[in-house]
Write a structure and sequence with these properties.
Number of domains: 1
Largest sheet: 6 strands, antiparallel
Strand content: 15-25%
Structural class: alpha+beta
Distance between the termini: 27 Å
Number of helices: 5
Number of strands: 6
CATH class: Alpha Beta
CATH topology: Thiol Ester Dehydrase, Chain A
Helix content: 25-40%
Oligomer: single chain
Order of helices and strands: HHHEEHEEEEH
Length: 237
């Protein structure tokens, strides 16, 4: 079977925020474990347990790590399926921002306010735990920027020909509290050829915590294909 020319394939990012398959039982369990890992991180930051209990905790964690490492290659990301450049569900679950399987994520819950077109708004709901602290009791500004990048990235995908971040600017207006519900919003501001300008806000209740502007440039399919090839080569090495 001949391999399709990547230059003739549709944009691989189109619809990347939409789940097209049900999660497997394996992934459902990994989501549960990832949530427990987040709990471990939160407890570790605030614990006053004696050394003996910390030693026991480490031993238990080491056992779990050894078990997972024994099957570490069983569920590697396999890349896009034949004839496709859109591993969408893999991204949704593995994202460090919204991925349920990724313990680095909060994760943020995403909704689309509108019909899914360029006039729609992406809405992200999040509660940042203690691990995300910058100033006392407040979310670190770097994490706010990262979550804006995800929300604005999803917003630019509504253009139908999305790409990657070229520029992201965040203006911080008020402290963003930890352990409180916050809402990110993002929408397309304008489209000029491959350039997609987006804007967003972050609120805690009625308080405007931050505003953001971003510029994205639509990615050519052949560039995406090359990135996948590089990633696969890194895994194989």
């Amino acid at each position: 079977m001949s391999t399709p020319d990547p230059a003739n394939l549709p944009n691989p990012f189109k619809g990347f925020h939409i789940r097209t398959e049900e999660r497997s039982e394996n992934d459902k369990w990994r989501i549960e474990i990832a949530q427990e890992v987040r709990t471990v991180i939160d407890q570790l930051l605030g614990t006053s347990a004696p050394v003996e209990e910390l030693e026991r905790t480490q031993a238990i964690i080491n056992q779990a790590v050894a078990l997972l490492k024994s099957r570490s290659h069983s569920h590697d990301y396999e890349g896009p399926s034949e004839g496709s450049l859109a591993p969408l569900n893999s991204f949704l679950d593995r994202s460090p921002i919204i991925g349920g399987i990724n313990p680095l994520s909060v994760p943020m819950r995403i909704e689309i306010d509108g019909d899914g077109g360029t006039e729609s708004t992406v809405v992200g709901h999040a509660i940042f735990p203690a691990a995300y602290e910058g100033p006392p009791g407040c979310v670190h500004g770097g994490f706010i920027a990262a979550y804006f990048d995800e929300v604005l990235g999803m917003a630019q995908s509504l253009s139908g020909n999305p790409g990657m971040t070229v520029n992201l600017t965040v203006d911080y207006r008020a402290p963003t509290p930890l352990k409180q519900p916050v809402i990110f919003r993002g929408r397309v501001a304008s489209i000029d050829g491959r350039k997609i300008s987006v804007s967003g806000t972050l609120h805690h209740g009625e308080t405007l915590c931050a505003e953001a502007k971003g510029l994205f440039v639509s990615m050519r399919p052949e560039v995406f294909s090359r990135l996948v090839e590089i990633r696969q080569a890194q895994q194989d090495s």
